[in-house]
Amino acid sequence: MPTNSHETLNALPTLLAYPGLLAGYRTIDETVNDHLFSNYLRALIQQDMLASAGITDQPEESIEAFIRQFTSNADSLASLCSDGISKLPLLLLPTLLDALTKNGDVHRMAFLLAAYGHYLASTCDSIEADKPTTESGFPQGDWAKITSSDALAFLHISAFASARLHNYPHFVAMYKSYRTQIDQYGVVFLLKQMAYNQMALQ
Q1: How far is it, in rounded angstroms, from Cα 197 to Cα 116?
Q2: Which letter does DSSP use for residue 20 in this model?
Q3: In 3D, which of 121, 120, 100 has the Cα closest to residue 110?
Q4: pLDDT 10s digits, 151-193
Q5: Is residue 142 within 8 Å of residue 155, measured between CB atoms?
Q6: Rounded distance between C-alpha atoms, residue 43 and residue 159, angstroms
Q7: For residue 145, what are the contacts with CB-CB under 8 A and spacing of at least 6?
Q8: Domains of the chain with bracketed CATH
Q9: Taking the CB of residue 163, how many other CB atoms lie within 10 A of it?
């Protein structure tokens, strides 16, 4: 987990890349300009990452201003996705484990891991990416888990093994459900469902 709010916010493109690419977007600005994705990322940063880091005084205006910077950033999502295994575990796992041990809300992080797992398991044609899924950095044995017909095998790859995510049944069930929904209906459908659920609770 980044040690301060500036570093956390600078991780925004990595958090955006996988669900954005799966939705058919090619660049950061295309994705951020979709309110469905910007709303998701805003909630992930404010309610999960900053809260877990104990940062409760980050002005909302500064987060909004930071997000707006990406509305004109044409960097390729495919490039950001090329080395996620060196970024996402360090960025996400401490926050996720903190929430799991506190029985907190983990649905946004479960969605992100489900999108990442689906991205890795997908072919170039199925996600219409700029190039095939050729992310490096995985031990040879991990690819069998990534491409397994059992979506839960992804939670056992080397980068996630120490987190022992399989010990949290509610997270496992949520992750598996999200993988299934992304596979059948896509990330846009799932994000809309998540947004509707949040609205119903307000």
Answers
A1: 22
A2: H
A3: 100
A4: 999 999 999 999 999 999 999 999 999 999 999 999 999 999 8
A5: no
A6: 25
A7: 153, 154, 156, 157
A8: 5-201 (1.10.1040.10)
A9: 17
First to last CA, the chain: 29
Provide the angle, in degrees to the nearest 10, between the axes of the packed helices 35-43 and 107-121: 120
- Please return the burial class of 157, using the count of CB atoms within 10 Å of its CB with bins 0-12, 13-18 and 19+: buried
For residues 15 and 200, what is the distance between their CA atoms, to the nearest angstrom?
25
Round to whole Å and give the CA distance between 181 and 172.
14
Judge whether residue 95 has pLDDT over 70.
yes
Q: How far apart, in whole angstroms, are the C-alpha atoms of residue 18 and residue 186?
A: 12
Please report, as a single letter, which amino acid is at residue 169: P
Asked if residue 127 has pLDDT above 60, the reply is no
Cα–Cα distance between 33 and 146 in angstroms, integer?
A: 31
Q: Which two tokens stand for residue 43?
A: 């909630």
H/E stretch holding 37 reads helix 35-43
User: Structure tokens of 104?
Assistant: 């907190």
* 11 residue type, one letter: A
